[in-house]
Design brief:
One of its GO terms (biological process) is endocytosis. The protein is built from 42 helices and 25 strands. Helices cover 43% and strands 13% of the residues.
């Protein structure tokens, strides 16, 4: 096919739009055109990317050409092979300067059905085939300058195909670039008339510039069959050529079918607008078209196709910037259409014309819900795009359930799940209440999805949810850890996600960051998995490579791993490695590496016990303040602020003051805040504090916020040793010719309060103080003048000798036009002229000390991090500041405690206290006085239910539990899908439980997860350590196990529970109580009758005795009590039955020793008196500690009251006998 070349003013190049992957194969030597290449003219290679904004692979909406790089290449001219082309469509793109012909031939490939918003992919590496002239000609009408390397496309990452983007932004960019953007190129060595070809496989279809794209039906199964053709054009400014070009683009807004030729009116309209040379002509053409469309809509009886065509025209007018105030309802009605092309345009119009509070949105909610429930994945995706773009609070409340259903449905395709996850994330950020607490477990299970893209999008969602409600999503910790290990250690990923030899870098970064939102795990197995993964990441980062993309990916993962190591705070070996490595990053030539190194070291300073490793690089860090990049300077300032202590405070503050004189205006206010905080926090000398504070205000001037100078006044007022020195120096500053107004405010207050303390010193007399302030009145604002008047009325009380001058000043201001100043002056004048001074002395009495915690300096410092989507787990300011925040959060939340497969008795809190400041307060809290509630995660409005607690036990949980109370191994639970077995061993206060999970289904159980829990009142009494996690997938008839170590620290009353969840089509879960009670940690003790009664009497009665008289439990009256059952129960509870001790032979007497690690050992004695006739029992237990008898009594009473059932004997079947004998023989 032939396409006319273009003038600089209008695009003319028609090309076959393709959705492709990376180019493959080696370039071949050019063989077309038959002309010889001029060897003396160097090659100019074009690396270009095309971003196609589209909703499905068969329809190209708008192209954007991005010139990424232009390089000199002296290699032989050649053609470039392009592979994996998915579809074909013609569209207008900006012309390439210096080229007159371009040949494209598409390769047949199966078009994916996956719809998406945007994909970036390389078209080819363009190389000129032939040089017509040896001397390059300049490009006429174009500025010859360097190519702008800023990306022109909206989507930068080729792997982020499911990103949810704003429709307005996409189309506005597309409209601005399609046919309007001109590529500016450096001095080109390519002659204007150069043939450019792209070598593709044979059997491709010829496309004419004047004909639409063939449909699949017209191709007759050929799918782009045919011979390789060449595309040639005539040159530029022929209007006919332009019209022909525009008409060939008729398929870019509809499906590539033969019917698209009927949309020539749309294409002609676009061509008319492009050919309009003046704004008035364009406006005239648009008004004419709007009148026609309005008339068509009024007449009615339009088919869906014509509605689509006219809505497309309205869309094009809208994205050109013209107002469209009608047609919205017709556009919205297209959403209900059954045809994909019409529905697509309807959704596109909805995202452009409407906003989240538009009244028409109420009309489309049901249509969107219908598309969400449809079995057509394309319709699902269109609806998800619309919800994410314009969905607000009301739409989120109405449709969040359907979005969640698509996310968790086992029948949803991977690309639908990705979009559903990101849509739910978008809705959650607008209204956190739409995500229900009971969804947590099902959402977390998707972290194990085999599709890396689904795992990536779900991780983004879980990160946002965990920041606000870490306890509800605590199960994600173990899953994220296991997923990182599978990627980094086990290499479980597909080759598609190996990005420059770095596996799944985006997923790694998100998982590593997710782990930082939870306290460090106490599980040995989980800690070991994290340690192995982090060590492997550090080792891989040691490999130096010259590939920039690989370096970027490695550094992204490396720095997030470093942040996690710092967060864990207990991996000393890893901390030593990163400390030395961060020092090298600070001296890197790459700006990004220096920036990340400074940020990571700032994080390290917030956690590390000693700052000595960081102080070694103090000179380099100070040098970062002079970096050319302001972002690096900001990070250097943060690090200096965090690493400052009493030993280096004066050096750092001095350097910051020196740099402040030439600092960028964008960071001056932040520098002033941090210098003020450091000066107060680490001041060891009174004079140094005053000098630095006043010098800081004098240098910074307008960049000093009110909090800074007000805090100086508070400190001076509250510390007597500062008052004289502060009054002297503030007077000196006020006397100077160039005194900033902020210093006048400080001088007015301090001299009014403490000016009498220096009145007897040279050059500090009352009249000199008055004249110094009076000389600054004319140049000050109203607020400062008000402070000066207040100072004057204090002078009337302190210095009667200058009262006439003061009264004259009041009289002058009593006639001012400023009402505030006039009222003050009149009141002060009246007060000063009263017959007696009693009222004046009362009013002007000395100010009391300010109450502590009134400053907001730290709140201002941390304000810039308050509104980010991903909250930080630390704050800038060193270990002391983070310790204060941790304490406030712990007090607010009751401690961040983990209860999943880990020790839940301990809470995570940073150690350390604040530094005193020599009478200036009590460190950070006194300085800041801020509400720390804003620094922690937001409180969830409704507390998520703990599904692993005893309140959610599954039916029939007690069948196996009651049996295993008396035995060491057996089946704990069994249903049609899962069997849970237990094997246990006890030694003193330690217990080892091995849980067996067997899959009884013919299919695999996926996302297999176990969560341990214990009642809040029992945490700290019983702890556990998980030695391993069960396999995430248990295959057909397969089995997995989990080993858990328990330690009894004190006597506990309630047993721990375990929740087992897995995917078997839908999410299945059971909650069971583990057969672990206090009696399991008892050892039988042998006692003689004499020793037993002696100890029985020694222990005595209450409170070391517990007794109960009971019979069979309600509903168990049909059961039996006999001697065999009672003896078996007593021995099962690990009592040594002492026969012959009790005078009544029917009674049972027992002794045992209970082991605990913290409280020690307890001697326990038991006496059981049964009455088998009445089915009654009296049970008495005594122990050496008062907390033991009631616990043992309760658990034994529950078991004995259940009685037993005499089961009928059933003879074993022949197969059972055979199995029994075979087991014996094998043994």
């Amino acid at each position: 096919m032939e396409v006319p070349c273009n003038t600089p003013d209008a695009p003319s190049l028609q090309a076959a739009g393709t959705l492709g992957a990376q180019q493959q194969g080696r370039p071949r030597r050019a063989q077309s055109m038959g002309d010889k290449c001029d060897k003396q003219a160097p090659d100019r290679r074009w690396d270009a990317y095309l971003t196609v904004l589209t909703f499905n692979s068969q329809q190209l909406l708008m192209p954007v050409l991005r010139v990424v790089d232009i390089q000199d290449a002296f290699a032989e001219t050649s053609n470039v092979r392009v592979a994996h082309l998915h579809t074909l469509a013609a569209f207008p793109i900006p012309s390439l300067p210096g080229f007159s012909r371009v040949s494209f031939s598409p390769k047949p490939a199966k078009a994916p059905r996956t719809p998406f918003l945007g994909v970036s992919f390389p078209i080819s590496q363009f190389r000129p085939v032939q040089h017509r002239e040896s001397t390059p000609k300049p490009l006429k009408g174009r500025t010859q300058s360097r190519v702008n390397h800023q990306p022109l496309s909206i989507v930068d990452n080729p792997l982020v195909a499911s990103s949810l983007l704003d429709g307005n932004t996409l189309l506005r960019h597309a409209a601005a670039l399609a046919g309007r953007f001109r590529v500016r190129v450096a001095e080109s060595t390519i002659p204007p008339s150069t043939d450019l070809t792209v070598d593709l496989p044979k059997n491709s279809t010829r496309l004419s510039a004047a004909q639409p794209l063939p449909s699949r039906a017209e191709e007759g199964g050929r799918h782009f069959g045919g011979q390789r053709r060449q595309l040639q054009t005539d040159c530029p400014s022929n209007p006919a050529n332009t019209a022909a070009m525009s008409s060939s683009a008729s398929g870019f807004l509809g499906r590539s079918t033969s019917n698209n030729s009927n949309m020539r009116g749309l294409v002609q309209f676009i061509a008319d607008l492009r050919n309009a040379r003046a704004r008035e002509l364009e406006e005239k053409r648009i008004n004419k078209e709007l009148a026609n469309i309005r008339q068509k809509f009024k007449d009615g009886n339009l088919s869906g196709y014509h509605k689509k065509k006219y809505v497309c025209k309205l869309l094009y007018i809208y994205i050109l910037g013209w107002n469209v105030d009608f047609g919205h309802l017709e556009a919205v009605n297209l959403i209900s259409a059954n045809k994909y092309s019409e529905k697509q345009i309807g959704y596109l119009a909805m995202t452009l014309f409407l906003h989240e509070k538009h009244e028409l949105l109420h009309l489309v909610v049901n249509s969107i819900r219908k598309d969400l429930l449809d079995h057509n994945e394309l319709f699902n995706c269109l609806a998800l795009h619309a919800i994410a773009n314009v969905g607000g609070r009301e739409m989120g409340e109405a449709l969040s359930g359907e979005v969640h259903r698509l996310l968790i449905s086992p029948t949803s395709k991977a690309f639908v799940k990705k979009k559903a996850s990101l849509t739910l994330l978008r809705l959650y950020r607008k209204n956190p209440d739409i995500v229900q607490s009971q969804w947590a477990e099902r959402i977390i299970s998707l972290l194990d999805d085999v599709d890396v893209g689904v795992a990536l999008s779900v991780t983004s969602l879980v990160m946002a949810l965990a920041q606000d409600n870490a306890n509800a999503y605590k199960g994600a910790y173990a899953k994220a850890t296991a997923r990182i290990k599978r990627i980094v250690i086990d290499g479980e990923y597909t080759p598609d996600y190996l990005y420059y030899k770095v596996p799944c870098p985006w997923l790694q970064v998100k998982l590593l960051r997710l782990l930082q939102y939870f306290p460090p795990s106490d599980d040995t197995h989980v800690r070991e998995m994290i340690r192995e993964s982090l060590q492997k990441i550090l080792n891989l980062a040691m490999e130096q490579t010259k590939n920039v993309q690989q370096n970027n990916a490695q550094n992204a993962v490396l720095f997030e791993a470093i942040n996690l190591i710092i967060h864990l705070d207990n991996e000393q070996a890893l901390l030593k490695q990163i400390s030395s490595r961060l020092g090298r990053f600070l001296t890197s030539r790459e700006t990004n590496v220096r920036y990340l190194g400074l940020e990571a070291m700032t994080h390290l300073a917030a956690r590390i016990e000693t700052l000595e490793p960081i102080k070694q690089h103090q000179d380099v860090i100070l040098g970062s303040l002079k970096d050319r990049d302001i972002s690096v300077r900001r990070k250097g300032l943060d690090l200096l602020y965090s690493m400052c202590d009493s030993s280096n405070a004066q050096v750092i503050v001095g350097e910051l003051l020196h740099y402040l004189q030439n600092a960028d205006f964008a960071i001056r206010e932040e520098m002033v805040l941090k210098i003020a905080i450091l000066t107060e926090r680490y001041a060891t000398d009174v004079q140094w504090y005053v000098d630095i504070s006043l010098r800081l205000i004098a240098m910074a001037g307008d960049h000093v916020s009110d909090e800074v100078w007000q805090r100086v006044i508070q400190i001076v007022t509250n510390n007597e040793e500062l008052q004289v020195y502060a009054a002297q120096h503030s007077l000196q500053y006020v006397k100077s010719d160039h005194c900033h107004e902020t210093l006048v405010k400080i001088g007015a207050y301090i001299l009014g309060e403490f000016g009498h303390l220096i009145a007897d010193q040279p050059k500090c007399s009352p009249i000199e103080q008055f004249m110094a302030l009076q000389s600054k009145v004319a140049a000050c604002s109203s607020s400062t003048r008000a402070m000066i008047l207040s100072c004057y009325v204090k002078f009337v009380n302190l210095f009667p000798e200058i009262k006439p001058q003061l009264l004259k000043a009041f009289q002058v201001f009593s006639h001012t036009l400023d009402s505030e100043l006039q009222q003050r002056a009149c009141e002060y004048l009246t007060l000063a002229t009263l017959p007696t001074d009693d009222l004046l002395r009362t009013v002007c009495d000395e100010m009391p000390p300010f109450s502590e915690r009134q400053s907001a300096l730290l709140a201002r410092v941390h304000q810039k991090h308050a509104n980010t989507s991903d909250k930080r787990t630390w704050i800038v300011g060193g270990k002391d500041a983070n310790a204060d925040v941790a304490e406030m959060k712990m007090a607010k939340e009751g401690g961040l405690k983990r209860t999943f497969s880990t020790n839940t008795n301990g809470h995570h809190a940073a150690n350390g206290g604040t530094n005193g400041t020599n009478g200036h307060g009590n460190g950070v809290n006194d300085l800041a006085g801020l509400d720390m509630n804003n620094l922690g995660p937001a409180e969830p409005k409704t507390k998520a239910p703990n599904l692993a607690s005893a309140a959610h036990l599954s039916p029939n949980w007690d069948v196996g539990y009651n049996k295993l109370l008396l035995k060491g191994e057996g089946v704990l639970y069994e249903d049609g899908q899962l069997q849970v077995g237990v094997r246990s061993e006890y030694r003193g206060q330690m217990a080892c439980l091995i849980l067996y999970f067997k899959n009884k289904t013919p299919t695999a159980l996926g996302s297999f997860t176990t969560t341990l829990d214990l009642d809040e009142n029992e945490k700290g009494k019983l702890t556990w350590d998980v030695k391993n996690l069960p396999e995430s997938t248990i295959y057909q008839n397969g089995q997995s196990q989990q080993v858990i170590m328990f330690e009894s620290k004190k006597v506990f009353d309630k047993s721990p529970t375990i929740r087992i969840s897995y995917l078997a089509g839908a999410l299945q879960a059971v909650t069971l109580k583990l057969p672990l009670t206090a009696h399991k940690f008892m050892d039988p003790a042998d006692l003689s009758a004499e020793d037993f009664f002696r100890r029985w009497k020694q222990i005595g009665g209450a409170p070391r005795e517990a007794q109960a008289i009971f019979g069979l439990a309600p509903g168990k009256s049909d059961r039996e009590l006999n001697e065999f059952f009672v003896r078996q129960t007593v021995e099962g509870f690990r009592w040594r039955v002492l026969d012959g001790v009790d005078p009544n032979a029917k009674n049972f007497v027992g002794a045992s020793v209970l082991h605990t690690s913290e409280a020690g050992k307890f001697g326990c004695l038991m006496r059981l008196e049964p009455n088998y006739g009445t089915k009654m029992i009296r049970l008495t237990i005594r122990a050496t500690d008062e907390s033991v008898p009631a616990v043992l009594l309760k658990v034994m009473q529950d078991r004995l009251a259940a009685g037993f059932t005499q089961e009928k004997f059933q003879a074993p079947t022949p197969s059972e006998i055979s199995d029994a004998f075979s087991n014996i023989l094998v043994t």
